[in-house]
Amino acid sequence: MAIDYAALKTELTTDPEALGYPGQNEDQRAALINAVGSATVAVERASVTSQEILAEVRQAEWHAIGEDQAGEYAGEGASRQRLFSVLMTVGGQGVEGLDWSDDSVRNLIRSCFPATIASNTRTAIIALETIPDTVATRAEELFGHGVSVSPADIAIADNI
Fold this sequence. Notes:
Blueprint: H1 5-14, H2 26-34, E1 36-44, E2 47-48, H3 50-54, H4 59-65, H5 76-93, E3 98-99, H6 103-112, H7 119-127, E4 130-137, H8 138-143, H9 151-158
Helix pairs in contact: 1-9, 2-9, 5-6
């Protein structure tokens, strides 16, 4: 996830968590925003592996999504299973897995498991979108897991 410089500027000027930004130079403010905090937060994940997703698929629901439902065209259920299989294959190719920060990727996977026929699997996959109870930095809380803010980022935010 990229740094939103307007949001960073607001963070630095309002200091909503009272981290002590006012009066600090760029290096000091970067250190403050990147310091691991004592609070736990749910941090959005940047990626998720195919193995993590596959572990959440309930066998009975896998079979159910393969069947055409009332109001669907013939073969729609099998299409869901094929799409999911392709996504898992593609996601297994990269070292980091599927780009979970991309809404279209998450929506494609969700579409394979409609809530009406696969609610347990769908709920479990949606739960993969965040890392709950993570001791994180303020930068990660604002901009996503693994993101850190450099002094150069602070300078950019200061000048917008």
